[in-house]
Amino acid sequence: MKKLSVFIISFLLLKFSLILCSLAEDSCFWRIKHNEEDDGELRTDCGFILFTIPYPIEEGFYNTLIDFRIPTRKYEFFLVLLFATDEINRNPYILPNMSLIFSIISGMCFKTMNTIDFLYSPKNSFSKPPNYDCGTSSCDVALTGPSWTTSVKLTTYTTYPQIFFGPFHPILSDNVLFPYVCQVAHKDTCLPHAMVSLMLYFTWTWIGLVISDDDQGIQFLSDLRAEMQRKGICLAFVNVIPDSMQLYMAGAVIYDNQIMTSSAKVVVIYGEMNSTLEVSFRRWAYLGVQRIWVTTSQWDVITSKRDFSLDLFHGTVTFIHHHAKVPKFRNFVRTLNTSKYPVDISQMRTKWNFFNCSVSETNYSSMNHGSINTTLEWLSQHKFDMVLSEEGYNLYNAVYAVAHSYHEIIFQQVESQHIANHTGIFHDCHQMASLLKKRVFTNPVGELVDMNLRQKLCGNYDIYNIWNFPQGFGLKVKIGDYSHYFPQSQQLHISEDLEWATGATSVPTSTCSVTCTPGFRKFHQEHTPDCCFDCVWCPENEVSNETVDMDQCVSCPNDQYSNAEHTLCLQRHVSFLAYGDPLGMTLACMSVCFSALTALVLVAFVKYNDTPIVKANNRILSYILLISITFCFLCSLLFIGHPNIVTCILQQTTFGVFFTVAVSTVLAKTITVVLAFKLTTPGRRMRGMLLSGATNFVIPICVLVQVILCGIWLATSPPFIDTDTHSEQGQIIIMCHKGSVIAFHFVLGYLGSLALGSFTVAFLARNLPDKFNEAKFLTFSMLVFCSVWVTFLPVYHSTKGKVMVAVEVFSILASSAGLLGCIFAPKCYVILIRPYSNSLQKYMDKLRY
């Protein structure tokens, strides 16, 4: 039953993968891992010696040389060397009449370090590798890799030139410590920028990092962290794995908990494979830690045979230095001459390979029934295409670098007539090392190889995603590429076909916080990384609608406002205290009605101007007061309707001047009453003042002071048109701004002082005799006037928008109506309702009886 379930899963994954790979034929490869022991073989290096001989290679040379079982993961190196040397030996323009061959440093493809220590130990009589003639001091070239420690170890025992074909390591570029070592791989100068570009593309902002505890790892941490900070990406954790196995095992549980408890779904791994970092990586795979591993080409390994997931990015994303394809290599491997090369290679080449995923010419209906072995047999018969790894391609270039250097030395020696026929033995190691470091050539696939610029130029990267399936299957799909030399917006390219085939929703997120949707902005707590935040609503009239995770909301223009979701700015409606509004219409009607009523009162007073009640308190002052009250009612109309600069200026000046006229007239009337009734025995001077009409100068003097105040107001800070966007949601209220608030309050204060003076004088004269004495009415009118404007100030400053304008209009109408009603209503009652009382003879008859 278990075997059946495994078969069904394998069959389904094959179906799924074939459909996927049909969309990316040129960049999708199967791989099969056959042996349990392959994992251990990843920890071994190989060392080769390249040299020339002045005659063709014997038929069975390599059968004699390679008389051991080649580790599975090292087959590529042997195949590349066989192919490259064969290709060079067939080329008449490189090393003519000579053969380039390679030898193996004995045992170095197994336990590398122990082999080197044994071979070059002082106790061992064999202190040189095969084909290294001590007597003639020949200077052959060693090819070492993929671990840099092998090259360092070998350098301590030998002084012949080396080409390191593994990943670039800065320590080997030190010409003082390693003058005879050169590297063919590109330096990962732009790798941090390339990885961060991928993170930005998939919006991964919460990243874990695992590095080895060495100079290269610390430098990568510094470069990656700086690049991430520039792009707003945060490190969730940093695991620095010590080189010492003892130290690693002491803190292994801590490293495990850190990565297993972290919310980061993407983890960057950078460091050597042959280290405790690899142990940690395989330990996490065994513990079932499922993350998106972002790393380099050397971590292209199958990590699990049990767990299986169809998620798009379940597995490893690798950045591989871009290199051209070697089309002749495939044909060479398929047609390998077993009589010339070891039979072991020919029989076991399928133990390490990639299969092209094309299914266009393959009938896989036979897979509908069968066993696991049948599936494997079908895959082994599938369209075969062996693809060089990055290290294999570096080795290919290294062989050509050596061949071109040998060729140049021979050419120089022949030209200088040092030798007639070259024997293939070279003695000047310094010359050879110098030529290798400066070697520039074009390899057979057309790529320019400059050995001197490998550590200076940024390499281009191909980005692959590797899925690890059950039963040792692996699927490697190219998902994009990166080139530093393109414009920044075009440096990263992700395959559109892959996105169409899987859908963008399949890509998992790796963020510290939930994405802030439109209408919200990020709010950072103290002592937390920049990528960890809360989402809060945008303030009033601010929106966040274009992107997610906005740091600040965008304010709407003054003529717009935000909707309830704070995602869109809506157009505001222009609003003001218009005649069409119910409130504006009501106030306008009240103004017109009261002004008409005042006009009627004036008409009545003019008509009955000879009656005692009209003449009693200076009818000229009564006419002036009625006219001023009429204009006070009418000036309130300036506050209603669409404001303009003229109405804004007239609002305050007319209000101040006409009310000053009204209040100063009331003051003049009260002074007249006091002078008439308080001075029972007036002196000549007082009598003269009363008879000469000196009280009539009160009005122009008081008005002149108010006019001066208004003039100063208009000259310094006049009123202007203003807009209010805050009082009412979705409204732009157009209103008149007072300009100088201080001047406005000075005008009100001056009116208040006049009203208070009038109230005081009228209050003193309230009990004077005479039927037609209006002192009581004046007192009450000033009381109403002061009450209205004292109440106005707090109410006015507590309102906003057009309600504020309405409050001022209402105060004008109320205070004017108070003057009209309190002073003239009783008189109109007598004049119109009780005319018989408006007679001096009637009053005298009443006193007589």
UniProtKB/TrEMBL annotation:
<feature type="transmembrane region" description="Helical">
    <location>
        <begin position="653"/>
        <end position="677"/>
    </location>
</feature>
<dbReference type="InterPro" id="IPR017978">
    <property type="entry name" value="GPCR_3_C"/>
</dbReference>
<dbReference type="GO" id="GO:0005886">
    <property type="term" value="C:plasma membrane"/>
</dbReference>
<feature type="domain" description="G-protein coupled receptors family 3 profile">
    <location>
        <begin position="583"/>
        <end position="847"/>
    </location>
</feature>
<protein>
    <submittedName>
        <fullName>Vomeronasal type-2 receptor 116-like isoform X1</fullName>
    </submittedName>
</protein>
<feature type="transmembrane region" description="Helical">
    <location>
        <begin position="689"/>
        <end position="715"/>
    </location>
</feature>
<dbReference type="InterPro" id="IPR004073">
    <property type="entry name" value="GPCR_3_vmron_rcpt_2"/>
</dbReference>
<dbReference type="Pfam" id="PF07562">
    <property type="entry name" value="NCD3G"/>
</dbReference>
<feature type="signal peptide">
    <location>
        <begin position="1"/>
        <end position="24"/>
    </location>
</feature>
<keyword id="KW-1133">Transmembrane helix</keyword>
<keyword id="KW-0297">G-protein coupled receptor</keyword>
<feature type="transmembrane region" description="Helical">
    <location>
        <begin position="620"/>
        <end position="641"/>
    </location>
</feature>
<keyword id="KW-0807">Transducer</keyword>
<keyword id="KW-0325">Glycoprotein</keyword>
<comment type="similarity">
    <text>Belongs to the G-protein coupled receptor 3 family.</text>
</comment>
<keyword id="KW-1003">Cell membrane</keyword>
<dbReference type="InterPro" id="IPR011500">
    <property type="entry name" value="GPCR_3_9-Cys_dom"/>
</dbReference>
<dbReference type="InterPro" id="IPR028082">
    <property type="entry name" value="Peripla_BP_I"/>
</dbReference>
<dbReference type="Pfam" id="PF01094">
    <property type="entry name" value="ANF_receptor"/>
</dbReference>
<keyword id="KW-0812">Transmembrane</keyword>
<dbReference type="InterPro" id="IPR000068">
    <property type="entry name" value="GPCR_3_Ca_sens_rcpt-rel"/>
</dbReference>
<keyword id="KW-0472">Membrane</keyword>
<keyword id="KW-0732">Signal</keyword>
<feature type="transmembrane region" description="Helical">
    <location>
        <begin position="742"/>
        <end position="765"/>
    </location>
</feature>
<dbReference type="InterPro" id="IPR001828">
    <property type="entry name" value="ANF_lig-bd_rcpt"/>
</dbReference>
<feature type="transmembrane region" description="Helical">
    <location>
        <begin position="809"/>
        <end position="832"/>
    </location>
</feature>
<feature type="transmembrane region" description="Helical">
    <location>
        <begin position="777"/>
        <end position="797"/>
    </location>
</feature>
<dbReference type="Pfam" id="PF00003">
    <property type="entry name" value="7tm_3"/>
</dbReference>
<dbReference type="InterPro" id="IPR038550">
    <property type="entry name" value="GPCR_3_9-Cys_sf"/>
</dbReference>
<dbReference type="InterPro" id="IPR000337">
    <property type="entry name" value="GPCR_3"/>
</dbReference>
<dbReference type="GO" id="GO:0004930">
    <property type="term" value="F:G protein-coupled receptor activity"/>
</dbReference>
<feature type="transmembrane region" description="Helical">
    <location>
        <begin position="583"/>
        <end position="608"/>
    </location>
</feature>
<keyword id="KW-0675">Receptor</keyword>
